[in-house]
Design a protein that fits this description.
The chain is an alpha+beta fold. It has helices at 48-51, 56-77; strands at 5-8, 11-15, 18-19, 27-28, 30-34, 44-45, 52-53.
């Protein structure tokens, strides 16, 4: 399955949406981010109260928007997105 993705401020954001069959809101929105130097993040889910949606396309769009916000936080507010090596 092809995933929705975009490039924002030189970072690649990929929508990482998970389906929960049988749920009235089956799509759990989230994203993964890859930095220009190749480092990749873990999956960042949306906050629980906003994470589940009924439509896959909307879940993917929300996931990309969340990823853009995270990149802004990383570049402008020094929020760490990538796990440091232990």
């Amino acid at each position: 399955m092809q995933r929705l993705h975009c490039t924002y401020r030189n970072h690649t954001i990929v929508a990482d949406v998970i389906e929960y069959e049988g749920s009235p809101l089956p799509w759990a929105a989230g994203c993964r981010i890859t930095a220009p130097d190749g480092r990749s993040s873990r999956r960042f889910p949306l906050p629980h109260e906003r994470a589940f949606l009924s439509d896959r396309d909307k879940a993917e769009q929300v996931s990309l928007a969340h990823g853009k916000w995270l990149v802004d936080q990383h570049l402008d507010q020094s929020r760490e997105l990538f796990a440091s090596a232990a």
